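Notes taken during the Thursday session

The instructor put the following on the board and asked us to keep it in front of us for the whole hour. The protein is 3-oxoacyl-ACP reductase. We were told not to look anything up and to reason only from what is written here. First, the residues (257 in total):
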Amino acid sequence: MYLELFSLKGKTAVITGAARGIGFATADALSEAGAKVIITDMNGEAAAKAAAELSAKGRQIDSAVLDVTDPRAVEAVHASITEKHGRVDILVNNAGIAISNRPAETMDDPTWLKVIDVNLNGLFWCCRTFGKAMIEQGGGNIVNVGSMSADIVNRPQEQAQYNASKAGVHHLTRSLAAEWATRKIRVNAVAPTYIETDLTRYVYDDPEMMKHWVGNTPMNRMGQPPEIAAVILFLASDASSLMTGSIVAADGGYTLW
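Then, after some discussion, the predicted structure tokens were revealed:
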């Protein structure tokens, strides 16, 4: 009975920013659980390559090019996906960027606007478009990728714009959950710690970064993409059927100290 709650058989999921990292791991997890998964990314070639890799495992996978910062593009991609695959049951908003080491007093306008546009505006455009369709179809499930940075000030890097964008994601998650609960749409988020990817492995060669990133984590390590994907699978499945508006910390205990 209980393992069946994690099954996504018969479901269709769309994941943004899914060509690599957490997004790709999530596509792997959700498709292994039985869902048909559409990998979307700004890089169409990378999205197609990621889809081919999972298709080779016998999964139901497709890909699409999507710039989440363009609300009209979001609407067009949604229309294309639903025309080809039918209703979308699960939306995972994973697309995001991090630009660090930008002191607030010297931050240029484009940097602030770019981070907010991708991390917060883009997430809302996707929630609005897919959420409206979910209301019309009688329900759905949205999982947002937030960050522990929504609740702390990171050290040693200065990144007010990133922290603010993720704080917005967390409260938007709660707001939409409250608005759409009676529409049978659940909206939750995962708040990861630092995740080891090709872009973050450099910290192992930087003692100062290691001291803060890893040394200040009770579990004394960074996270791995599959560890976040597993939480997203839980939130996307009926195993979390009583949860909406929840922000699930997956941070190795970082926010405990």
